[in-house]
Amino acid sequence: MSGRYLSLAEREEIALLLVQGHGVCEIARRLGRAPLTISGEIQRNAATLSGMPSRRRAVPRLPRSRPTTRYAAGPRTG
Hints:
Strand content: under 5%
Domain Transposase IS30-like HTH: 2-45
Region (Disordered): 47-78
Shape: rod-shaped
Structural class: mainly alpha
Protein name: Helix-turn-helix domain-containing protein
């Protein structure tokens, strides 16, 4: 087990445990990983784990709106 990256075996184990109905914290405890690592892996690989299209492809992102300037005509003087 690498300290930084999940191995293929760990990814497969996550998929199996999810199908069996185990929660993120239980999976993390069994693999000796942080729950955040497991939840991130589940979100990243949603397409491979559940057959659903990933959120990244399913919901297009809108561009960020630019903040309006505080003084559209310039600051007031006087």
